[in-house]
Amino acid sequence: MATAIETLEKLERRITITFPIAEMQPEIEKRLKVRARTAKAPGFRPGKVPMKMVAAQYGYQVENEVLNEKVGIAFGAVVQENNLRVAGYPRIEPKKSYSDNYLTFDATFEVYPEVVVGDLSDVEMTQVQTEVSDVEIDKTIDILRKQRVHFHVKGEQSAHGDGGVDLSAQNGDRATVDFVGTIDGVEFAGGKAEGFAFVLGEGRMLPEFEAATIGLKTGESKLFPLAFPEDYHSKEVAGKTAEFNITLTLLEWAHLPEVDAEFAKMLGVEDGDLAKMRQDIKENLEREVKGRVKAKTKDSVMDALVKAVEFDAPKTLIEQDAERLAEMTRQDMAQRGMNVKEVPFPTELFTAQAERRVRLGLILAELVKANQLQATPEQIKTQVEDFAQSYEDPKQVVKYYFSDRNRIAEVEALVLEENVVNYVLGKAKVSVAVLPFDELMGNSQSQ
Description:
5-stranded antiparallel sheet, Trigger factor, domain 2
């Protein structure tokens, strides 16, 4: 027997479930008899243990099983009878009964909110556009050349020359040094090395170290002070000033490959055609731009939807998602080699992100349901083929996706989101903004 549904606060509901203890006893006895068939105890053959001993050994466990089932069945009946959409799991708590013959429980739970996506014509959002020009292609070629750099000893003749008449260390050169650092005349951990190589101008070393190396010739030494930043990764020396003595033992100049047929072949253009190489680079950049533009547009749409559609989100779902995000973060950090056993992961850190995810999930579900925005097989196939274009063997990639239902489900979710984005863009007030290539790419092209 269950009481009427009681509204507590916003989405929270409560019902009281009561049933006679006598209803449980036949089921408890039935299950104990089943256990008795295989029960074991010292001095008895299997299946011959007295029922009193079986009840003593398994009684508590069986009673709990039956009790949980009874409560679950009663709760499910109320849910079904009232067409409730329960969010998460109910919290079941025993309640003091006024009779020794009855058990009483309170079931507290949340229901899904009614999500109404109204008129989107007043919703404002920005859609970015980015063009790939010859400038971006040239920058990419420069990066590809730097990735294939090789070094020659400065001043020694090689197949590519001797590096010029200036034999001092300059930006772009690879310097190999021996160094010793001291603080108050005492060497410190990590402050000494032999044969240490780095490329000047890449920012791998602290500015004072690079500045002291610039201008040195092979065999020359220099003594200089170096102030470690307050936030330096080694706490032992952070905020302190050390004195370094460095000796340049080897200096090499960088030779970048020429942009010629051989270079094009290195990039996979079999016939070495430079025009084809540039076209391939442009297509790859455009594919990357397309993906990033879509991602930015999607973020803009999702932000607009969260602001435009107001409703109470179930706390239960938010808490569950926050716990899931915390666990995902813990696993990710562990996979990166970090010791996370003693690191606290309070779910409160993930509550805001979880709430946004829950709200968006409910909004998207309503939009898809109300406007038939489900992903079609044709859309899924097109999306997979689009993914495959950036790989050497597209057919093999397509086969890889379609061989696993989970992978296809991920693609289906992406297509569904894109359907929602296109639907909203067709309804909302959309302004177009031209975003510079470097800004879209996070300035990665300048590195």
